[in-house]
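Re: your question about Phospholipid/cholesterol/gamma-HCH transport system substrate-binding protein

S., sorry for the slow reply, the queue was backed up all week. Below is exactly what I fed in.
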Amino acid sequence: MNSAAERAELWVGAGVLVVAVGFLAWSTAGGGLGSRLGPGYELRAAFPNVDGIEVGTDVRVAGVKVGRVSAVELNPQTYFAEARLRLPQRIVLPADSAALIQSDGLLGGAYIELQPGGAAENLEPGDEIEDVQGAVSLLSLMMKFVDSQSSDDGK
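Result:
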């Protein structure tokens, strides 16, 4: 009886180990995103605030995931956060496109939404998206609302 229980524990432990190795392989491969995107290029966007954005964050067009953030760094001259966006070659954006940091909901994560413009010229690899909107802090919005309500009560 003891040896059967030990064998069962051994098989369960081996199964857990196999699943853990599988998750590790999947996560280091980026969930297969690189193979789905194919060869790509990078664009840059400088945001005043990138709260919730980090390496690996989704880049979307019309709500469809088309890329990811490959780097986020602080520019010491402008004090803006510069994000590098990795996009597949098949996604070509007009030069007047916009990049906005959006939220998936109250408790969801953030992502970068690209809104294509209407210019005849396209962004080239390494170009910067000039029209940006940084992250909006829900806490600061609530504090502004509370302050406005308290000042109205004082009238």
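The longest helix spans residues 2-28. The helical segments are 2-28, 33-37, 138-153.

Happy to talk it through on Thursday.
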